[in-house]
Amino acid sequence: MNTNHAMKRWLSPSRLMGIAVALFLIWFIVAFLMYPNLSLLLKTFIKDGSFTFEPFRQLWHSGKAMKSLLNSFILAFSLMITVNIAGVFLVMVTEYFDIRGAKILKLGYFTTLVCHGIILIAGYQYVYGPSGVVTQLLMRIFSDLDPNWFTGYGAVLFVMTFAITSNHVIFLSTALRRIDYQTIEVARNMGASEFRIITQIVLPVLKPSIIAITILNFHTGITALSSPMIQGGDHFQSINSIILILAGSEYSRGVAAALSIILGLATFLILTFLMRKDMDENFTAVSKVSSRIQKKKIANKPTNFLMHAAAYLLFVIYLLPLAIIFVFSFTDSYSIANGIISLDRLTLSNYIYVFSQPNGYKPYLVSLFYCLGAAVLVVVLCLIVARILHKSNNKLVTRSLEYATLIPWLLPSSMIALGLIYTYNTPKWLVGNYVLVGSIWIMLLAYIVVSIPFSIRLIKASFFGIDGSLEEAAKSMGAKTFYTFRRVILPMILPTALAVIALNFNGLLVNYDVTAFLYHPLLQPLSIVITSSVSENAVSSEVDTKAVSLVYSVVIMIISSISLYLIYGRNSNR
Amino acid sequence: MIEFQNVEIKYNDFVAVEAMNFTVKEGEFFTLLGPSGCGKTTTLRSLVGFIIPSKGKIMVGGKDMTHLPVEQRKIGIVFQSYALFPTMSVYENIAFGLKVQKLPKDEIHRIITEMANKVDLNEQQLNKNVSELSGGQQQRVAIARALVLKPNILVLDEPLSNLDAKLRGQMRAELKRLQNDFGITTIYVTHDQEEALTLSDRIAVYNKGKIEQIGTPHEIYNKSGSRFVCEFIGDINRLNEPVLRQINQQTGRQFDLSKPGYIRLERISLSLPPAIHKPVCLKARVVENEFNGIYTKYTYDVDGVLIRNVEKNDGSMSYINGQEISLFLNADDIMQF
């Protein structure tokens, strides 16, 4: 009787469904998160059945590869300083000091939220590149100026500094707004100078956020790909851009793998440190009734003028690439190549081509398929994983799952891409003996894999934010687990899930790091088309390639703005 | 109706509830009262089925419910947070359990309309989102949602703790009215002794996973069964040796001088109570007075022991600090354990 009862429970539909889900998750984690990376390590270090350091020896003797290694570390360390100077400054001028037109300035600084990734990097090239507007202007003043003046370390550092201040705009501004103004007032009341207040009251509270952002920026710097490729020139290539070149040849693949392993180790160390910092330091306001921060007028007139001047100069730097992309999207290659902005040359033909010709809208369809597909699938996957993390009492299961979902965060995109390429370029039983390399699916899978850590973090937080008694209430009214999930839990998770879909979609639209390794030659997504068009040699007999790529950029920015408005804008009005 | 037979509940090695034995009669308003972490909510959750006891049995109507799944127990629950589904309207919240039972739409509508009338929710409120309701209205929705499934038992887990003092008072009265109207057996969990005294037919006072005393509010308050109950329920004076010695000298009753005696504040009077044959009189000096409008709470020094009492505000009499007075009490009102 008892055996029958136990058997029935084991074979109940919900139990069978649970087993199927568990098997699927195990397969996905092994096939796409663990095996490709382990396989890459084995292929790099095991030759003819024995351990070898040959790829590292090759790397040591490759001047270009070693230079790229050095370049990436120099860039990452430099960005830790420059991004913080720019980021802290723009947060202070918009949130702390009373600067005229702060709201407009803020709009300019916020542009990195909608114009980012490859679009922004390309945008800077249209402003400062050999045919850029600023370069053309400078050449009129300094006739002997080298048109390629904006290349190398300085150019990459400049572009990346202003391209990655989004973290400051979002997180540091929020941290600053959370400072209890009464602590500043009491310091003033005790006679503290403005400098002392900033250094001893404001910045210590912001320190955990600044450290976290600094480490993230270090990570961005060390894994940089698009800016070194576009602005780096011959002398300033990064690890990732060299990996991309080396990965193409069978002979140098080992060196590419060795480089990506070094990158992986660096990322692992950085993120371990970041997570420790995240747990160690967290200041919360201790006052029972905190008050909103009030902007401080700068009393010293010369300082006030300098602050205003610097704030508006930054505004121009931020807005220029965006404005140039927008204006040039209505012109032709000639205007773009010569940095000419003339009313006579304005045209709508680029837009008409993009929206009416199959070749024009094909990159959109390709990107839509990959980015939306991956964005939705990763959220579905993360909903399942987060639900298990939320409900399971088995620590072994939850910890294993949690660590598995963090793997893509600990590894650079290039290593993930190389792992997939080197593993699935031959038939493997794990994927039904299907050769994924060269198929349309490999990039979709890679997009899903790289989006997992960010998505799981937000969706998991949303699950854990739900009052546990809601589920118990539903259960006490007779609702089964799946019915409760569908009717009670899912509607509460849905806003977060949709936001994650939108954010992933936005991020993937301008993703270049994974795309450059894995895109199908016949199905080029927008980021590849845009990058190709930046090249000085980009020509096409059929269309104005450069101008059309700018239309793509404008439309991506519009899509990003709409999704950001849908996620944050509407809520902030409530 | 409900019977806990030697129930023990463990969280790993920690025994949250130990050898629990009590019965609840049909239609009774039974309260589990005790400080935080004493095991009262754990007991409640084991009755509902969220926790399975490690030992013992839970019987309802003569049937063993110990291992029965939650949904088969026919117990309605109102949570501390009310646990109203925020993505649903009031109507949808109340209809949730009926939809799970797959009742026809017309039937669901009829039942909800009837229930809404009983708990004073109008049609406009039924169409609102639960977040648009006041705390009191949310409580009524939570009760309606639980009662609409016609449960045999209603359990309430500190449902008033999120409300402000004034609303708590109003809701207490409303809760009692609803329980009377529906006549349903109700188990109520609270740490608020005033709530327990005003609402309950009987109270079980918990301490460290065990029941200290079960009784009517009157018994619990006036005939407390242990030192813990005495100190946990209401305000009380602790009488030490010098005071007890004086009392022993004046009455036939002999209190053990090595243990403290306890007497409620209102059982000490400044005037001679007419009904007492042999009142005890203690010489005291006023050291503090706290005017509260309806009454004044005095603190006196009696032979170095501080004793308090409350005097109704009749608009005339008021004692000042340092004033010498006489206190009267009945030795039978003193409890000693």
From TrEMBL, chain A:
Domain (ABC transmembrane type-1) ranges: 69-274, 364-563
TM region(s), chain numbering: 16-35, 73-97, 109-129, 149-176, 197-219, 254-274, 305-328, 364-389, 401-422, 434-456, 488-509, 550-568
Membrane topology listed for this record: Multi-pass membrane protein
Protein location: Cell inner membrane; Cell membrane
GO annotations of cellular component type: plasma membrane
UniProt cross-references to SUPFAM superfamilies, sorted A to Z: MetI-like
Any one GO biological process: transmembrane transport
Entry-linked PROSITE patterns: ABC_TM1 (PS50928)
InterPro entries for the chain: MetI-like, MetI-like_sf
Keywords of the record: Cell inner membrane, Cell membrane, Membrane, Transmembrane, Transmembrane helix, Transport
Family: Belongs to the binding-protein-dependent transport system permease family.
Protein name (Swiss-Prot/TrEMBL): Iron(III) transport system permease protein
Source organism (scientific name): Paenibacillus prosopidis
Automatic annotation (TrEMBL), chain B:
Molecular-function annotations in GO: ABC-type transporter activity; ATP binding; ATP hydrolysis activity
InterPro entries the record matches: AAA+_ATPase, ABC_SmlMolc_Importer, ABC_transporter-like_ATP-bd, ABC_transporter-like_CS, P-loop_NTPase
Protein name listed in UniProt: Iron(III) transport system ATP-binding protein
UniProt keyword terms in alphabetical order: ATP-binding, Nucleotide-binding, Transport
This protein's GO CC annotations: ATP-binding cassette (ABC) transporter complex
Keyword Nucleotide-binding applies: yes
Gene3D superfamilies given in the database record: P-loop containing nucleotide triphosphate hydrolases
Record PROSITE patterns: ABC_TRANSPORTER_1 (PS00211), ABC_TRANSPORTER_2 (PS50893)
Domain named ABC transporter: residues: 2-233
Top-level lineage group: Bacteria
Entry keyword ATP-binding: yes
Species of provenance: Paenibacillus prosopidis
